[in-house]
Each structure stands twice: as structure tokens, then as C-alpha cells.
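Why do we care about 3D structure at all? Because function follows from shape, and shape follows, mostly, from sequence. That is the central idea of this module. The next example makes it concrete: a single protein chain, its amino acid sequence, and then its structure expressed as C-alpha cells.
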Amino acid sequence: MPVVSTCRSLFKSKASWVGLRCVVLSRSSRRRTISSRKGDANHPVRALFTGIVEELGTVADVGTVEDGFEMTINASVALDGVKLGDSIAVNGTCLTVTRFDDNSFSVGLAPETLRRTSLGDVVPGSLVNLERSLQPTSRLGGHFVQGHVDGTGTIVSMDKEKDSLWVKVKTSADILRYIVPKGYIAVDGTSLTVVNVFDDELAFNFMLVSYTQQKIVVPLKSVGSKVNLEVDIMGKYVERLLAGYTTRPAQT
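And the structure:
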């Protein structure tokens, strides 16, 4: 009974706990340059996404800047209302806008981001999925996506069925444990429904309808390409909750 009660309250409060912090910025930051960024722990900026891609951006430039790695992306929709310090999901990875102009924006990537995601593979000319973070009035068309990539998967097959596309992705056991049939998965930041899970192959598949194929980057990739994966955060919280419950000492 305690587990049931706690799980119910957990589900009810889902919207309040999944929006985790992506970056900390000073509210006084006004300039459109990377040099204006300052940490301010009293004013955290929180970001949450839906997995509904707003547009395909084109990578204009990648390279090192100071002691980090920077990527510049040409976009239009994603620039509407953008401000320094805003969070934009790039192929499902929550990144912070460090500078922008009328046609493009730049983001910095930490070494851990490059290790955990496939963004280190992009080159000028690559197309990437873009989604701005949710606003309080936004509709939730997909599922709660944090932009915190769990790891990558590799496309092992792409098969047409009429005008739809079957895509099969192989990943690690640590990620597959949270993937269930008919559950949600964010693939390169796109909210998708898992169709089948192949435990013996460490793989899962999903189907893309014709409309979706025209709006995201996955159909443009090929067998052997990497994709960013973020599992539904609910599974992790439930696992953590149940683990704590089962390890409690028995009450007498």
C-alpha cells in the first residue's frame, strides 16, 4: 500500500518534477555574446520539451572556442523570441544559446555531452532536429522530454511498408531496460512510440508515418548511423522508488 500511494502522488506531480535544470544564468545578462554568461544559483533556468520537432536546422559551423566546443546552426522557427541563455533541444540534447543573430544561433558543448551524444559526429551541412523549450501555455503533443540524453543507439535496419518506415535501433542493456512496448522513447529528440522490444538483440523498433518522415532527421540517416536516445523518465523514478522500498528493513 505505501508503494501504491507514493506512486499515485508521483504520477500526479509529474509536471512539477521532470523539468530539471539545464543551465544557470544571471538574470542581468543582456549582451548577445558568450562572454556575458554568469552563474547565478538563485535564478535557475529550467527546460522541458515535448519531443515534437519544430524545424530542421542546418549546422553552419562546428569547432573549438576558448576551452570548449561550439556549434552554430542556421534556423528560423527556433529563433522566434529567442534570448541569450534560452534552452533549445538539438537532436534531443538540451543546449544553451550562447549567442545568436537573425539567421542562426550558437551553442556550447561540454566534453561529457560529446561523449554521451552523437553531436560530435555532425559536420557543416548536417541537418538537426530543433525544439524550443516549453512555455507555460504550450500544448503537450508528445511526452515529457528533458533533453538529457541517456546514450546512443545504432540503426540496424530501415524497412519501408507502403508509405511508412520501420526503424530498428540497437542500444545498450542499461538503456533497453527502460524501454517497453507501446511506451515512449525520444530518438534524436523526437517523441516516438515503441512498437517492439527485442531483448535478445538489445534492440527496439518504431514506425514513422509519411508526415513524420518529412519533419525529422531519422529518415535521412542510414543503417549504421547513431541516434541519441532518452528514455521516459517515469521508469527511472519508479525503479528508484521501488528499490528503496524493497531494501527497507522489515517492520516488526
